[in-house]
Amino acid sequence: MKTRIYDKKFTRIQALHSTQGPTLKKSHPPFPHAGSLRFAPSKLLYGAVLAAFVAVLVIVYRTRNASFRWDLLETTLRHADWRWVLAAILLTLLTIVGRALRWQVMLRPSARILGIWQLTSDTAIGLAAGALLGRAGEVVRPYLIATHAGVPFSSQAAAWLLERVFDLLAVMLICVYALFRVPSLRAGGYPLTLGVAVALILLLAFLDPRKRAERRILSALTFLPQQSQQRAGRVLETFAQGIQCLRDRRSLILLVSYTLLEWGIIVSGTFTMLQAFSGTSRLSLSDALILLAFGALGGVVQIPGLGGGMQAALIVALTQIYRLPIEAATGIAVALWLVGIVTTAAFGLACAFHQGLNWGKLKLLSTKQILDSDA
Description:
The chain is mainly α and 375 residues long. The chain has one domain (87-374). It is built from 16 helices and two strands. The protein has helices at 4-19, 41-62, 70-78, 82-106, 116-133, 140-149, 153-181, 189-205, 212-220, 226-242, 249-275, 285-298, 309-320, 326-354, 359-365, 368-374, and strands at residues 302-303, 307-308. The protein has a two-stranded antiparallel sheet with strand order 1-2. Strand 1 (302-303) and strand 2 form a beta hairpin. The protein starts with a helix and ends with a helix.
């Protein structure tokens, strides 16, 4: 019964693959750049090799005058307090529920209600797809929610954009705090504070029902090719659709509250992981915020299923700010990343199995054909 809701869709996708092949007609879905999404194992492999090479270079550079003590790395991981690790895993699972609660608010404009378990399951599957497939997996979550709620995909793509905006603002605020807390980086806090203010002003401008902000942005992009202008117009229209729920005061309060709750849990999870290791057990919640900011900034550079930038940024912060040996810093950074990605991926794949989705279907959900057939 669980698979019936997807069977017709997958049949249509497979038929498109077999009958149209490379001559599939291009479409312009509302989801940002979704029309160009492809699952390319070769590019993924090259990216993974490049990330591994960069990581090796970083380690070699940091240890060029001393040998890397693998025994210290092993000791750091072996002596971790697994009670704190377990607490961090539970908090990671709670963040998925927090995201589901927030998405439930963003469903209100469509007058459709999904149970919190269904939303949590779809959210977990989407996050797992994003972690394992990278950018191509980002369409999975809004597609599943749109399917179960019986609403257009574009409305949930808009909700996805709004979620990203709230998370981006939260990350920027955390980074502002971190920059002002680290004396050597304090100068960077001022322009970032200005960036937060500009982002909030733009968000408020998009609430204008006369769409003056959209028109002004589009008029400023007239130098771009026509196709790029059309794509920008679709993204702006989708975003404007997503923020409609902000006009309702109660929805706005709930979205802000759930975002604070979500990031409060994330900070708590980072703090509990730091308590698991002797080298970081003395650190406070303030230090957890600083490390979270470095991880978020490093996370801009990610390889699907492997991470990359987050670990490197955490290693830099732990060695340069908190003066940990690079071996201990490497072990803690890798453990932080593993707890996040393994917990999310494992729970998401379990939910996918419960819904009758397998790996092949998740990959199909992440291709542009799923969007073409939904049009």
